[in-house]
Write a structure and sequence with these properties.
Chain lengths: ~90, ~375
Amino acid sequence: MPEARPRLAAKARLRYDRKSTRYMLLYPERGLVLNPTAADIVQLCTGEHTVEAIVQRLAEKYTSQPREAIAQEVQTFLDVMAARGLVHAEP
Amino acid sequence: MVTEAAFDASRAGRVRFRRVSDEYRPYTLVAELTYRCPLRCAYCSNPLDYAGHTDTLTTEDWRRVFREAEDLGVVQLNLTGGEPLVRDDLEALVEEAERLDLYTNLITSGIPLTRERLAGLARLGLDNVQVSIQDVTAAASDRMAGLRSFERKLEVARWVKDLGLPLTVNTVLHRDNLDAVEHVIALAESLCADRLELANTQYLGWALVNRRALLPTPAQLEAARAVAAAARARLQGRMEVLFVTPDYYSRVPKACMDGWGRRFIVVTPDGLALPCHAAHTLPGLVWDNVRDRALGDIWRDSPGFAAFRGEAWMAEPCRSCDRRAIDFGGCRCQAYHLTGDAALTDPACSLSPHHDLVETARREALTPHTVPPLVYRAARQPART
């Protein structure tokens, strides 16, 4: 839903990892190493930005990609994170 | 303008710690701050001789260990014990962990704690609180804990959520409470837990002493597993439901600690740096103390950490097994405590020549028997059975 405002779950926290030079999303007993685009999305999951606004930001940054493709990837990623309880979508 | 970066969110998040290419990098420090605990659970994973380890690390020792761990690549910190709350410098330790940007998880019985103290720890940057609840009724929970504590634990769990902290509920499962797993799930839901760990007892430490009283039947286990799976699907996205199978009922061994000296460092209350909670119960291995050597040196080249890294130590059937890079031969402590040799295949594996030890225990669980009284964790060591 493009008007939803995704917010990182309370249990999850983003941390920059010097060793891998990537962002990690940490939660109890686990962690995910994020690729740069995933980290861009997660950084915008503050509950302030709508999915549409997140897509807009990424489209400005990754200009070689068609906007529809970005929109689809953002939504797929957010769905996976929501299923894991790492991101909540607030209306 | 950035145009070069690939847009590849679909592949993000598939990489878990265990698959990261760095073969030996510790991601988690398990800080056993003390072996003291007001509870006396009969399945405690602390060593049987815990009471003999009294020379505990100071606040400054622990701060230095955290710094050295972070420098090695550690990002997760488990503050555990014993009961970490019995240390009055927990605040100073959480503060240092926060300064190092570690994900800090307090693993606690919730006893002794006040709401004010928990609020203070939350302000200092605690990231998650894991509260153990032994069973679903006060009588059963208090019986296992050996202390009246059930009502207080529920209160602590509510404080955790009130203060905006994420809550993990941990319940250790065994013969007496597996049939109540549905109620355990309902209890965790009513507490608005973010995560529920249904951890079947693993038979090491005090649990091995009490195996006859604790080991469930296969029917109990399968029924509970099905209930947990249904709850996991129903609660997806709201409450994470983990169900950890007991080694005795899996055909292949677990990848204990994700492999020896690969992902975890455990530091005991008196400063031994270990690859797992019980490594110091294995004879013949020499362990370094964090008071004597830097953690990085210990991790890289202490003989104890080197002992079971890689595959050179493996005997058959592990040596030629397809799964040797998946399960790393299973649990070294289980191999030792059941067979007397830490370098053998974990007897939980159906291919182990000693698997009959596990099968015999399973058969005993099926045979109707008078359940022996629990041997509670206590300063005096029980007689070996």
